[in-house]
Write a structure and sequence with these properties.
The protein contains 13 helices and no strands. The protein is mostly helical.
Length: 334
């Protein structure tokens, strides 16, 4: 019997999950289930009081919060649409599809998180949800990812050639490595710095749980990329590897520009230069995870980010409250 493959396998029945070929996909599915949460379980009263209190937050802190809510509120939907409309169509392996459905659910939870935050704080939804068009540094990030992946939305696209498998890999790198692995991480560092300073603890706690979800998304996406490459080694040419590396370097530049926009002045022990160092550090880790050479060799300026990811979920990192989650995630990914 022919061995199952991720792509273009004639004997793959998408309705028959057993026997499982790719145990890693099943493991990531179970890790996601173990991390189940909903935003409404996180109290927001302290955040509301601080947000409304005169002088409770500085203008720079408010700017940073709004910019991050503006970016994440639409970025999560963009990611979910890509999973459902593009990736799911071309990755027909049933255990991988099971995880993709789980990830789509988590993206819906993340989208709901920003609805909950905006409603709780009384923010203008037109302002927040249009920032991906009105704030240039946010628009440039979204436009970059959309442009990277537009070919896969062609209804006639098929992964039936070396060129088209490369296009699929290009899409997967764009969403898993760049969008979820780089474009989200300046925002995570900013919002979790607020939490470390006991400010906006409800919003910060929700960002903490999103970060934990994203660590699993990153692991699955990188495994998916590596498996497709191992099954189609002819696609991993030097030219294509250089293209992927250059895309990741461009993503670091765009995310740094976003950090400069969010943080025109240093606050909470953060500034745009430190964010740049962190982006270079995680970009090297992303490159290595998909078997590409490091570029920056920068040390991690925020080791506490690793502590947040490693933390068990039964109690949040800053001990604001005890929660009722099942089991902690078991992945460590900055």
């Amino acid at each position: 019997m022919q061995r199952k493959k991720i792509l273009n396998c004639g004997n793959t029945d998408p309705n028959k999950i057993l026997p499982i070929q790719y145990s890693w996909a099943r493991e990531y599915y179970k890790a996601g289930v173990a991390n189940t949460w909903t935003p409404e379980e996180v109290p927001m009263q302290q955040d509301v009081e601080l947000w409304k209190k005169s002088g409770g937050l500085s203008d720079d802190e408010r700017r940073m919060i709004l910019w991050n809510l503006g970016f994440f509120s639409t970025a999560e939907s963009l990611t979910a649409n890509n999973i459902v409309l593009a990736i799911y169509q071309h990755v027909t392996n049933p255990e991988c599809r099971q995880y993709l459905l789980r990830q789509a659910f988590e993206e819906a939870i993340h989208t709901d998180t920003f609805i909950y935050c905006c409603d709780s704080l009384g923010l203008d939804p037109d302002e927040v949800y249009n920032m991906y068009m009105t704030v240039p540094s946010i628009k440039e990030k979204d436009d970059f990812v959309v442009d990277m992946t537009k070919s896969l939305f062609d209804p006639n696209f098929k992964t039936d050639s070396v060129e088209n498998v490369q296009k699929l890999l290009h899409d997967l790198v764009g969403y898993y490595v760049i969008m979820e692995g780089i474009f989200f991480y300046a925002g995570f560092a900013m919002m979790l710095s607020l939490l470390r300073n006991n400010k906006m603890v409800g919003v910060g706690e929700q960002f903490q749980y999103i970060l934990r979800d994203e660590s699993v998304h990153l692991a699955f996406g990188s495994e998916l990329i590596n498996t497709i490459v191992s099954e189609n080694p002819e696609v991993w040419t030097e030219e294509f590897r250089n293209k992927v590396t250059n895309n990741i370097k461009r993503a670091v530049d765009l995310e740094h520009a976003y950090a400069v926009d969010c943080l025109p002045r240093g606050i909470l022990g953060l500034n745009a230069d430190l964010i740049r160092n962190y982006l270079e550090y995680i970009a090297d880790r992303r490159l290595e995870r998909i078997n590409l050479a490091k570029v920056y060799n920068t040390s991690n300026p925020f080791p506490w980010m690793s502590e947040i990811i490693d933390l068990r979920k039964e109690k949040n990192f800053f001990e604001t409250r005890v929660t009722e989650y099942q089991t902690g995630g078991q992945l460590s990914w900055d």
